[in-house]
Every structure is written in C-alpha cells, then in structure tokens.
Amino acid sequence: MGDIHFLNNNFEKVRNVKQVSKQIIDFILAFNLANPVKGVCFDAMVFLYTDTLVLQVESEIHIISIKAKKTDVLYILNSEIISKGFPDMFESKHWEIDFKGNKGLLLTGVSSKNINYAILIQPAGKDCVPATMEEIEENIKHKS
User: Fold this and answer.
1) What is the DSSP letter of 68?
2) Phi and psi at residue 103, in whole multiples of 5°?
3) DSSP per residue over 94-123, as a string?
4) Per-residue pLDDT of the chain (144 residues; tens, 9 = 90+)
C-alpha cells in the first residue's frame, strides 16, 4: 500500500510540473522546486568552471517552459555570469543539460569567446524574493 501512495504522490508532483526536459523535470522534483502558483524560481549557488576560471555566485534562478517550441528556458538572474562573458540564459534544446542528483543541474557549453565551460546550479532555497517575482510577472504581462 505504501508503494501505491508513493506513486500517486509522485504522479501528482509530475502533473504539476510544466517543464518539458526530463533532466529539468527530474531536477525540479528532486529539490521540490515547483510552485503551482509562482512557477519555478529559487535561490541557488552557481559555480562556473573553465580551464582558467572558477567563479561562485549566489543567484536566483527562473525556469520557464515554451510548450509551442517544446523547450525549457533557464535564466541565471545574477549579472556577474554575463559580465564574465558567459550566457545567463539556457534553452534546453540548445545546451547540454545534465541532472547530477543531489549535486544539482550541470550546464555545459562553449562561450562566445570559444571557451569551454561548465555551470553547476545547486538550489539553496525554494522561492525567489517577492521583488523578483513581481518583476517576472510584469515582464510576462508586457510580452502577452
């Protein structure tokens, strides 16, 4: 009977997740990041690795889904990443994304300066601050 409850509980969680990519869905479920009202926005530690650079920053992360394109988009909301010449937006169709269990989500790619990089995102919270959520909601209104 416990197995049936576990399966029903996980089915309900999966049904509430709107993302498309299996790696991102697994990440969201493992860290319990889905919010049925606010979507997926959370505090995280972000680690950027290259051959010559290791950068660690705190950032809010926002994940949205674009059903028409069958893709997810992950935003790192800390400008320090982009100021170092690396992207702050990742579309699941165009970047290598790998869920690493309790270590977090690993994004790998090549920067515009032809530098190989890896970015590890480790959740540190389950929500963004209210000001960030208000800004996200305002941007969504303007795009609609």
Assistant:
1) G
2) -80, -30
3) TSEEEE-GGG-EEEEEE-TTS-EEEEEEEE
4) 333 333 334 434 444 456 678 899 899 999 998 776 567 899 999 999 999 989 999 999 998 887 777 888 899 999 999 998 889 999 888 888 999 999 999 999 988 888 899 999 999 988 777 777 677 666 655 555
Supply the pTM of this predicted model: 0.78
Contacts 24+ apart (CB under 8 A), 90-98: 92/20, 92/21, 92/23, 92/24, 93/69, 97/21, 97/23, 97/24, 98/23
Instruction: Quote the CA–CA distance of 102 and 66 in Å, as a whole number.
Output: 26
Instruction: Quote the CA–CA distance of 131 and 124 in Å, as a whole number.
Output: 18
